[in-house]
DNA sequence: ATTATTTTAAACACGA
DNA sequence: TTCGTGTTTAAAATAA
């Protein structure tokens, strides 16, 4: 068979393929973000700081309890156990992230409502500040058209952020985490869509306040921004100035802020007790912490991307950037730490460094040690399992286009099933048909992850082609090509939408966070409003085709369900709880690719896929120890 | 707990 | 015989 798998199935037990050592490549990337523009050092920073504290507390708690528990996992097979969590490094720089990206976070549902709130507020504040900044003094000389154009662009971004928040609010409602007063119920969407309400204070505002605010602002953009800006700042200050008697990052307003907890306490002591009892170092807490780290990491990545996008927008509009360099920021996604609890005791699992509290300082979290860092950890995840697209009707597309560059460079396993990927590859081709080899090439070209262990995934590809009826082999003059039977493909996805009626309803409204679906849906909507959105950062023909394919899928997906309310779409279920990266306890494949995350930063050893060959060979060495 | 999907691994068949 | 393609079967991992 294939030459690859040096491990051959031999009797060597299962260990083979993943066996082993994982080498880490140390995380370099330390790019300090010290560059924080002075302009942004305001309320946004304060909030940012808040979030940071929360995150930090996770680590603190973990490492504390970690110390008095050297246990090995209860059950040898406890899956979920060894998750890896990438830790972001430079999360301190407030940057604007895209709604799409934000949605991913929301989908993952790992942030507590408070955390999300903070994040969203921060985003809004940032954008507003930028808007204001650009409207101020130094730009007065601009011609009106330019100014309004730029405002429009900003406004659109802002609206998108708001949409995300709106979605978030709904999620909270659905989860019963947020109580919306009767009179407030109708607020959300609508208003958001109009970009006319201050989401910053929504949480504690009353319907009356809201109305008053809207009235004050009117529909005039200038008035809107001016008022909102001021208003937001006030709100933010109010929030930050409301320190509880006993402050603790995980305790606020009498509620435990541990992700997903929400327990209410009369006093601080009760809270502490709760914290120690309910959130002690156990599988669950560890997993949550990992998730949190993952979230942060994701955020950073997205943040960087959106920042870049914003920069491009500003550049396009000839506006001076508030943020000097929003360029290709580091997608620090790469750094990660393996929390694998599974790692018995030996290596200190997560000695997560306590990150300093300096908001602006580089977090260099795990700067230390063994953290596996680099993409490695990310994909070392062994068997990939978490795939979320596919179901939910929304195959890759959206995500892919959004993170295409990321996947092309980072050795991270894409969260899509082989079937989805194969289909994508075929649909992207001009003739909607590809030979097996061409499919292989697409995989290697589009995903760094598939540049290794070729024998494995190629076998999987072949297997999928044969297995799924949706892939049809067509004899051709010079061999055979594979095509996609869309009908079949669509057929195989419907998956019952389990869940409460309420959930379904929300989802239908497209507000749900149906992971990919509604998120993607909204994203696509946004995209339609701002055409260049998706293609802005990319731009190659390939990407465009990808985007088109995506659109197609979007349409298809919409047909299925989301079409506004009435449908009965099968398929999406609420959150895909984050793709937990679970690592098999054992072995991680020896990674080799050091690809530090910084896709952006450094490594850009950009693949240059054009002359892609089969990267097959290149794997040989990695498999073997 | 059960079921349906996916992913991995592998054995085999076939033609070049 | 070796390879690249395809098919299948199984088992393990996951998602619902």
UniProtKB/TrEMBL annotation:
Q: Where in the chain is the DNA-binding region found?
A: 413-486
UniProt xrefs under Gene3D superfamilies: 1.20.5.340, Winged helix-like DNA-binding domain superfamily/Winged helix DNA-binding domain
Q: List the biased-composition ranges (Low complexity).
A: 352-367
Specify whether DNA-binding is a keyword of the entry. yes
UniProt region (Disordered), positions on chain: 1-41, 338-367, 556-625
Q: What is a single cellular component term in the Gene Ontology annotation?
A: nucleus
Xref: Pfam families: Forkhead (PF00250), FOXP-CC (PF16159)
Location comes to: Nucleus
InterPro entries, A to Z: FH_FOXP1_P2, Fork_head_dom, FOXP, FOXP-CC, TF_fork_head_CS_2, WH-like_DNA-bd_sf, WH_DNA-bd_sf
Question: Gene behind this chain?
Answer: foxp1b
Locate the compositionally biased regions of type Acidic residues. 616-625
Has UniProt tagged this entry with the keyword RNA-binding? no
GO terms (molecular function) for this protein are: DNA-binding transcription repressor activity, RNA polymerase II-specific; RNA polymerase II cis-regulatory region sequence-specific DNA binding; zinc ion binding
Q: Can you give the residue ranges of the Fork-head domain?
A: 413-486
Q: Which UniProt keywords apply?
A: DNA-binding, Metal-binding, Nucleus, Repressor, Transcription, Transcription regulation, Zinc, Zinc-finger
Which organism encodes this protein? Answer: Echeneis naucrates
Question: PANTHER family in the record, alphabetically?
Answer: FORKHEAD BOX P, ISOFORM C, FORKHEAD BOX PROTEIN P1
Source species, domain of life: Eukaryota
CDD domains named in the record = FH_FOXP2
The protein's name is: Forkhead box P1b
- The UniProt regions of compositional bias labelled Polar residues, in chain numbering, are 1-21, 561-571
């Amino acid at each position: 068979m294939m030459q690859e798998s040096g491990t051959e199935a031999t009797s060597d037990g299962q260990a083979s393929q993943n066996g082993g050592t994982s080498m880490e490549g140390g995380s370099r990337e330390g790019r300090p973000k010290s560059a924080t523009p002075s302009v942004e050092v305001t309320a946004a920073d304060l909030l940012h700081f808040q979030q940071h504290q929360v995150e930090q507390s996770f680590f603190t708690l973990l490492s504390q309890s970690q110390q008095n528990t050297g246990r090995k996992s209860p059950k040898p097979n406890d899956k979920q156990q060894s998750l890896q969590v990438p830790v972001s490094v430079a999360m301190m720089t407030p940057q604007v992230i895209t709604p799409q990206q934000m949605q991913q976070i929301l989908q993952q549902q790992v942030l507590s409502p408070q955390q999300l709130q903070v994040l969203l507020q921060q985003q809004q504040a940032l954008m507003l500040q930028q808007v204001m900044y650009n409207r101020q003094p130094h730009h007065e000389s601009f011609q009106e058209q330019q100014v309004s154009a730029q405002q429009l662009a900003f406004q659109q971004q802002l609206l998108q952020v708001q949409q995300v928040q709106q979605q978030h609010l709904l999620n909270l409602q659905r989860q019963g985490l947020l109580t919306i007063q009767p009179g407030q119920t109708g607020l959300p969407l609508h208003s958001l869509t109009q970009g006319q309400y201050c989401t910053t204070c929504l949480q504690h505002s009353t319907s009356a306040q809201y109305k008053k605010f809207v009235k004050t602002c009117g529909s005039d953009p200038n008035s809107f921004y001016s008022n909102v800006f001021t208003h937001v700042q006030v709100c933010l200050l109010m929030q930050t100035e409301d320190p509880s008697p006993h402050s603790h990052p995980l305790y606020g307003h009498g509620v435990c802020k541990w992700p997903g907890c929400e327990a209410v306490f009369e006093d601080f002591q009760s809270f502490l007790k709760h914290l120690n009892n309910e959130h002690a170092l156990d599988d669950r807490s560890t997993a949550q912490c990992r998730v949190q780290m993952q979230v942060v990491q994701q955020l950073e990545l997205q943040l960087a991307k959106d920042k870049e996008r914003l920069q491009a927008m500003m550049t396009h509009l000839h506006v001076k950037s508030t943020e000097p360099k929003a360029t290709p920021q580091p997608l620090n996604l790469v750094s990660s730490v393996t929390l694998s609890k599974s790692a018995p005791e030996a290596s200190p699992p997560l000695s997560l460094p306590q990150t300093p509290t300096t908001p602006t300082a580089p977090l260099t979290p795990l700067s230390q040690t063994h953290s596996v860092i680099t993409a490695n950890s990310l994909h070392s995840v062994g068997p990939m399992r978490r795939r979320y697209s596919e179901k939910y009707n929304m195959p890759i597309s959206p995500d892919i286009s959004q993170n295409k560059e990321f996947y092309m460079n980072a050795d991270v396993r894409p969260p899509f099933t082989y079937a989805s990927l194969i289909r994508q590859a075929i649909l992207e081709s001009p003739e909607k048909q590809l030979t097996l080899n061409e499919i292989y090439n697409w995989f290697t070209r589009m995903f760094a992850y598939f540049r290794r262990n070729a024998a494995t995934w190629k076998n999987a590809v072949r297997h999928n082609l044969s297995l799924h009826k949706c892939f049809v082999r067509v004899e051709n003059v010079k061999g055979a090509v594979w095509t996609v039977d869309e009908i079949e493909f669509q057929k195989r996805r419907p998956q019952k939408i389990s869940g409460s009626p309420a959930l379904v309803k929300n989802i239908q409204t497209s507000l749900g966070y149906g992971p990919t679906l509604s998120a993607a849906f909204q994203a696509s909507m946004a995209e339609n409003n701002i055409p260049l959105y998706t293609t802005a950062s990319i731009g190659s023909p390939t990407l465009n085709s990808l985007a088109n394919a995506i659109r197609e899928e979007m349409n298809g997906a919409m047909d299925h369900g989301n079409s506004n309310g009435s449908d009965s779409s099968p398929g999406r279920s609420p959150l895909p709880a984050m793709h937990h990266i679970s690592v098999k306890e054992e072995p991680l494949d020896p990674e080799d690719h050091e690809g530090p995350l910084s896709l952006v930063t450094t490594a850009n050893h950009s693949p240059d896929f054009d002359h892609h060959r089969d990267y097959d060979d290149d794997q040989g060495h990695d498999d073997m120890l």
